[in-house]
């Protein structure tokens, strides 16, 4: 099986409740998937959060499902480890999906990795592991900055620095960008422009003024636009296109 | 972890259930559950060749990944490292295909159970054994990754540490696949998560710290300083202070180097303990063993045990040293 190395495009959405403004986030996640972008979601739960709050987090699962990614609901204390696990699993799942669709082209409609005999599956898994380790990654982090998140932002910040430690231990290159929603003026605000390392977060979150609305859908849309613009900018500069998963039809 | 596969959770197996492999057609009869974790559940089962451990899980990628590691282990010459791999297959239950693998069943005690019934110096000896295995693993190009008491068993007699759960085992130069915060140098702000021998040595030191603090503790602002203070102020850890600091700060180039330091420090301590046996009787672990015996009798027995223990211990050290030189 030949696989060309390229760039994995992932979104990590961190939120603590349901959206209440703008486009339907589940629809936006489906749109992202069509662009070859995977949406992973983390729902933050507070230790003694009320029942209605937990219900609100059901949206978290649905966004990830429709965005082809992974979701997890956690208490703030487990955030760091979850953030890196969800991101890595999301990357693996994306690669897995791409390989499955290639297998279907070779072996026919219904084939997936699970249909291969265990020995062959092992070989495919080595390819998946290999790609997960060596592919370049572009990650957009969307942080819910609505009022209820205010107290949790310090932990979020810590977990993102921790994520950067994990991802920068990989062989492949990383680029991160960080958006908050709602922003000061717009629904979404770019807090950190593309950077290979997330250690400059300390100032980033102090710029946020926690607003009342939760525009999750618009935030996902902004991420799609950012990826698309970035790609066309890059194509203008380098003249080539080596993006991964484009048109792979999964 | 909620994953977006239509397969969902796998239902638990019960004692008496028989699973049969779809590809290799081997049957395994479930005896009982051994444990479960993030990746799946491990059962004790009986197969053609006797008792085995069967690991099943919903995440076929994670299962296959572990199988790949176990396969690589069997290629490492000389000593056996992880449990040996016996079979890999799928079973079908309620119309759902579930991946599983079969490995050698390791019968033993958890690290904490073992230490409850043994004297303090065993902590050092087990660590020496662990470092011996790690050095083999590292030479073969792998790092264990998720090193912690949960993933270790003491088998025997003769007592020997063995590792289980190779889910974190990573090729050198890559990023650590799985880790647990308390044992992870990234968490303590003391290094990257790149798979290199020093990553495992950090965790090995933290296992020692965990033995001294069974309920663990959380990181405060400055992790490095915090660990330093913890080690200095704890009697068990202070014994190994210089080795622990070197290991935690990534100063050891290899597991052998750390192992050799530890062996010579244990050698010295062995001699020290014969002449001052009352030192060890303060161990909390001992107290629980001989609870019911009267005080005087207790002290005399303790003295004997320590003497005998120290003697065996020194013989054992010679054995260890001759074995791995
Ligand atoms: N080969 C074996 N022999 C005996 N017991 C075993 C064996 N393998 C696993 N176990 C037992 O099963 C438990 C769970 O196994 P394991 O750690 O592999 O699961 P896991 O799902 O990977 O857990 P986690 O990733 O959370 O550590 C172990 O803690 C151990 O008690
Ligand atoms: Mg385990």
TrEMBL record, chain B:
GO cellular component, one term: cytoplasm
Transmembrane segments: 301-321
Positions with a binding annotation for ATP: 55
Keyword Nucleotide-binding annotated: yes
Endpoints of the signal sequence: none
InterPro entries per the UniProt record, alphabetical: Kinase-like_dom_sf, Prot_kinase_dom, Protein_kinase_ATP_BS
GO molecular function: ATP binding; protein serine/threonine kinase activity
Domain Protein kinase positions: 28-293
Transcription keyword on record: no
UniProt KW keywords: ATP-binding, Kinase, Membrane, Nucleotide-binding, Serine/threonine-protein kinase, Transferase, Transmembrane, Transmembrane helix
SUPFAM superfamilies the record matches: Protein kinase-like (PK-like)
Protein name: Serine/threonine protein kinase
